[in-house]
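Co-fold these.
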Amino acid sequence: MSEELSFWRTYVFSTDHKTIAKQYLSLGLFWALVGGLTAYLMRWQLAYPDTEVPGWGFIAPDFYNMLVTMHGTIMVFFVAMPILLASFGNFLIPLMIGSRDMAFPRLNMLSFWVFSLASLTLLISFFVPGGAASAGWTGYPPLSAKAAYTGVNWGLNLWILALALEFASFLMGGVNFLTTTINLRAPGMTFFRLPLIVWMQITAAVLFMLSVGPLIAGAVMLLMDRVLGTTFYLPEGGGEPLLWQHLFWFFGHPEVYVILLPGLGIVLEIMPVFSRKPIFGYRPIIYSTIAAGMLSFIVWAHHQFLSGMDPRLAMPFSITTIIISVPFALIVFAMIATLWRASISFPPPMLFALGTLSIFILGGLTGIFNGSAPVDIYIHDTYFVVAHFHYTLFSATFFAGFAGLYFWFPKMFGRMMNEPLGKMHFWLTFIFFNAGFVPMHFVGLGGMMRRIANPMQYEFLQPLQPINTFITIASVLLLLSQIPFVVNFLWSLMRGQVAERNPWQANTLEWSAASPPPHGNFETVPAVYRSPYEYSSPEAAEDWLPQDRPLASPAAARQ
Amino acid sequence: MDSRAQTLTSTGIPTGKVGVWWFLASEITVFGGLIASYIVVRLGSSGWSEAAAHLNFSLGLANTFVLLTSSLTMVLAFAAVEDKDPKRLGTYLGLTVLLGLAFLIIKAFEYTGEIAAGFTPAAGIFWSFYYGMTGLHALHVLAGVITNVILSIAAIGKVLRPNEHRVELAGLYWHFVDIVWIFLFPLLYLT
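Predicted complex below.
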């Protein structure tokens, strides 16, 4: 049924949601390499200050500032967003709801190409005179509002431009995700039969679309301050530096959940498959997701307890922040209850899903410390915070991201990934991640500040240096632990065992399409008869019951 | 291509309309953030009304009428679609484009006068907000004008027929841009 398309239309300017997903994935993985390189350079400098980094050279303090800035920018906006949201969302939403493509395929293509333009802009910003942006990934003014303060002019302007393009791209993506899910569901696919990851993706899309607007306005103001000489953020002209922090974090905190929710969604899809049990609490998970999404709009100032904002605001924001841990705790308990007394198997996707869960729990617990204003006064801007958000975001981006890749690789590329290599990848990543980031909490409690280029300049930090060295060794090993993945990915792409339609014996609709699905996805649009997690159902002969398999028995007709 | 596209809409609402409404929802937060910032900074500082007194009130008022009238012609264009009258559709879309352009020309004239009088974007916090808010709005007007030009050309060339619902979608956006101005005008000119 598919007519022949030219090479360009098939692989480059494709409107097929699956190709676009793979394009996002490739760019995201490319940026992950760059982000990993910045982490390596920073960690070396922290462990062995002002020595030559093997394979690179010396790192000057202003270059270190650039590394800190670009590491955050790249990992959040150019790795986590394209992989978790754009790639998995694009690939899975149409397949899982039984649609042939996105609602607006050409808008989808445009969204990817605008994202490529954002990537190109960010890449160019490394090479302009003055180097790339160095005002922190949060870009606080006044530091970011005048070129003279950081010595970076074009680098920072291009940084703003790259983020603006990225936001435009994800707005188009968000419109597509929402419209597709609202209007292109297959017959019988009601909202409460949607797989949980679809719920998580559309909640993330709503959060993104409703929170990014003020930051777009804020970014326009920042660019005007830098280029036209306005004084939105400059006190000497009647402006207000704190305004940016509010605009940034009004977006920045929902953004955390924009990344986290798709990650949790991946875990929630994988767990029932390898537990052979229905998900525990399907509807409560959806309600929790929505509740967390709404709460995420009123927690932002917990990033600003020490910013000089009215201190009377601290307690309300502490309270909302601690309340938001309730829906997430519910989701975590639902995951654990799904595992309870299940017949669990441990292929790489399940290992990474369990890794996400355990690491996210620790990150969530340290979040309670950060969210309480009295504790935060002590740990604000220290490595405790750095350790905290790596526990939450590394688990969502990399552990859940890898879980998703190992799980859907056969559907994406029609071949299986190698299992022993995958398991090795998991255990090395899990061990070295914890080895690196557990001690980071202690360094932070010892008072080490974020973003400093040389801890040895501070007498009170000198006794912590052996821990810093240990963290660096673990981080380098963590980076090296990704080699089995790279080998596995590339090798399986070409030589992996050919995958059947449903290698994991899973229920959701994507597994009833061919591996990989052709343009148009399904031979005929499937009809949906039941919810997505009916494993070990007494009504079926096997221990799984796909959403689109009709059952003749009266028990099934009741569904 | 179209043979494999799904035409079903699970909810019964046209798919394009769902998309445009979500797009507008996010646009509301862009201007919402800008207006909230304006209010917060305005409450915390003084001297705004003296600065605002230098704005050309009558030109601003004229522009308000221009934009309101353009919303009317946009509605009439949509009515022409409903009446299946392509000639009237072309006329009203063209009028909407002309009124949009008139708005931009008057705005540019205002900017020129203000900058000549020394009120550049760097002249203080009121002027920062004035140029930031009206500038972003003017870009939205420009986008609407371009959309309407594309639609008018298609209408005049008689190739709009299968996609006439796009007039309604463009209209939704155009009214949004109009409503934003209804907020900006009192905030900036009548402050």
